[in-house]
Amino acid sequence: MAQTESDDDLIIKSGQWTSLQKQDVSCTFSLAINPNADTAMDWLQILDGPLSLEARDLGISVSRDDGRLWFEVVLRLSLALMHVLRIPIFEAPMVRTVAAEPGKVGSWKAVCQRPDPALVPPKVFEGVLKVAFKLATWCSTADPDSSEDRQRFFQFIRNDIRRPFAKVIPRGKSTIEVLRVAHRLNIPYLPLPGGAFQVGMGSAGCRIERSTTDHDSALGMRWTKNKTLTAQLLRKGGLPAPRHVAVKSVVQAKRASAHLGFPLVVKPSDLERGEGVTVDVQADNLKAAFNRAVKRSPSKSVLIEQQVPGVCHRLFVLDGKLLYAVRRLPIGIYANGQSTIKELVNAECQSQQRMPPWKRSGIRPLDDLAFQMLGRQGWTADTIPEAGRFVALRRIETTALGGVDEDVTSTTHSANVRAAIEATKLFGLQVAGVDIISQDISQPWNSNGAIISEVNYAPLLGGGEISRSYIPTFLKTLIRNEGRIPIHVHFGSSEAVVSAQEEWKGLVNSGLRATFVCSQKVLMSDGVPYIMTLDSLYDRCRALALLSDVDALVIAVQDDEFLQSGLPFDSVSMVHDTGGKLSSHQEKRLLVDKEASNVRRVFNSWARCAKTDVSEA
Q: What is the model's pLDDT at position 387?
């Protein structure tokens, strides 16, 4: 059993947007048995496979003492558990010390770095760490190949992580996937209120929340939330839109069906994810389809829509260009030419059971709906389709029922791409998922009766392998210079301010919108003082990095504030020591030589990340 407590010692750490006054966490734990670290890591692979591969440099070695080895396993597991909560931290907390407690056999005291509290509240991390100790002990003796142990493992996470910490889980799955790639590309990011993030600094960055950006129109978002308004705007823009009628009663639904003709699609007018949708509706099941849709609709409004032949295709548009396109097939399997459909489905179901429930595809054993769909395709459960043939188990793809994506980026006709781009512009969006129902996406929409069925705000990004593969391009399109601006630091006595202001003026004269900042003032590129409510230099630096009109930052440092606050950025472009006496930030006195040496040591370590060498006076 482990106990955690706050450690009051402040450690200087240059990390990804290191937060103010980051504390360490100390804990005591006992090794009552000889836990198997390798087995625990096998469970970690099940929980967070992609991240396990990213953490090949974890450095766990059997030659280390058992306490340190086990503590690193626990911290690695705590990182995976934070990912279950979609907390975007991608490096396990650093181990500070691990020491055996004198006179207590098998008892250890350890200290680790606390993750950035701006990303994970301290109480949440401490709670997750306690669960990680408990879970790691269980994992070390459990069998990863046992279906019973796997179910216990997933139940443990549901009961001890997902439910207790449900309130900290942000909405949407895209944000953590985007930030995972940003971390891999060494692009800095900073949390903002409401689950949004600043990705990149100053003018080199942008703000995102899920897949949306700060350039997406609020009006466009409102239009996309209502299918009736979406269709109206598409028609006004000269784009192919669905024909439908909004109704609120069965009587109105019947009138609409007489006008539109069968078959129909019946769906809530104000829901996404395919919720409450029925296709292939005829007169005999119109009432049931209406009741299903109206029951799910928050506004109790239902769309009776003329059904268009074809398959839904998602065209992901970014900044006026097509990022990628996929054919959205219903949940199903691909034949291997040797196994029956029943055998293929059972094998896939077993494979999915090895995964965490929140990562499963949604496939299930053959049921009545699957048998109906097989019958439509002329198959039975015992059919052996030819290798590579896709076997659909549902009529349509929905988020609720699952689906399979096929990359059709290279085969999508340019006229369809143009229609998706124009629809995105029409809605005032920088990012959109445009759904086109087409019998053949390689043919222009106007040749085969294709329509734009929906324009989606905040389309899922990173939900599957195809989508994840385009995230690097997504970030590189939105962010320039790897999300970094020039940051020049001058530290020393009064000469630091003089030197920094001279450089700031030179950068401004060169055409850059450079900002000068010190503990006393902030000057924007136009020379006008920027009055701020923030007093600390750390907070001022972080605030200026949020401004889109800052191309470069010149910082003058005259005291030891950063020893207490931590460094505001993980790297800088240049550090220049102007010499002279440094001051104490808290005591308002000059630092003695030993104290000043400590400050210079910190700045010199910061400069190792700089593109130019440190210039000492």
A: 94
- Which residue's entry shows tokens 């010199």? 604
3-state helix, strand, coil in the chain (%, to 5): 40, 20, 40
Residues 6 or more apart from 602 whose CB is under 8 A from it? 12, 562, 563, 567
* Vertex 326: Cα angle to 321 and 332 (nearest 5): 170
Which residue, among 15, 406, 431, 416, has the nearest Cα to 190 in the 3D structure? 15
- CA dist list (Å): 217 to 3, 93, 316, 419: 48, 38, 17, 19
Chunked into runs of 10 residues, the chain (617 residues) has average pLDDT values of 41 32 76 73 79 44 62 91 93 89 83 88 92 90 90 93 90 92 93 92 95 95 91 96 92 92 90 80 92 90 92 96 95 93 93 86 89 91 93 81 88 98 97 96 96 94 93 96 93 91 95 94 94 91 94 92 81 87 85 85 69 39
Q: Output phi, psi for 334, to 5 deg.
A: -100, 130
Strands 514-517 and 552-557: parallel
CB 155 within 8 A of CB 138: no
Q: How far is the CA of 206 from the CAs of 193, 428, 459, in angstroms?
A: 15, 17, 18
d(CA 267, CA 409): 28
Supply φ then ψ for residue 498, to 5 degrees. -60, -45
Residue 588 is predicted with a pLDDT of 79
Rounded Cα distance, 521 and 556, in Å: 10
Q: What number of H helices and E strands is found in the chain?
A: 20, 25
CA–CA distance, 11 with 563 (Å, rounded to integer)? 8
Token readout for 131 is 């669960």
- Measured CA to CA, the distance from residue 614 to residue 77 in angstroms comes to 39
- DSSP-derived pairing of the beta strands 278-281 and 264-268: antiparallel
Going 201 to 206 to 208 to 211, the CA torsion angle's sign is: negative
Residues 6+ apart with CB under 8 A from 492: 499, 558, 577, 578, 579, 580, 582, 617
Distances (CA, A) of 499 to 364, 494, 495, 583: 68, 9, 6, 18
Asked if 271 and 297 count as a contact pair (C-beta separation under 8 A), the reply is yes
The pLDDT, as a whole number, for residue 50 is: 54
Distances (CA, A) of 461 to 189, 386, 470, 474, 605: 18, 32, 9, 9, 37
How far apart (Å, rounded) are the C-alpha atoms in residues 105 and 413? 70
Could you tell me the pTM of the whole model? 0.87
> Residue 157, SS3?
helix
301 in Cβ contact with 343 (< 8 Å)? no
Whole-angstrom Cα distance, residue 586 to residue 10?
15
Q: For residue 454, what is the enclosing H or E element?
A: strand 451-456
Could you tell me which residues come within 8 angstroms of residue 27 by beta carbon, excluding any fewer than 6 positions away?
2, 3, 4, 5, 109, 110, 111, 112, 129, 133
Q: Which residues contact 33 (CB under 8 A, 6 or more apart)?
A: 137, 140, 141
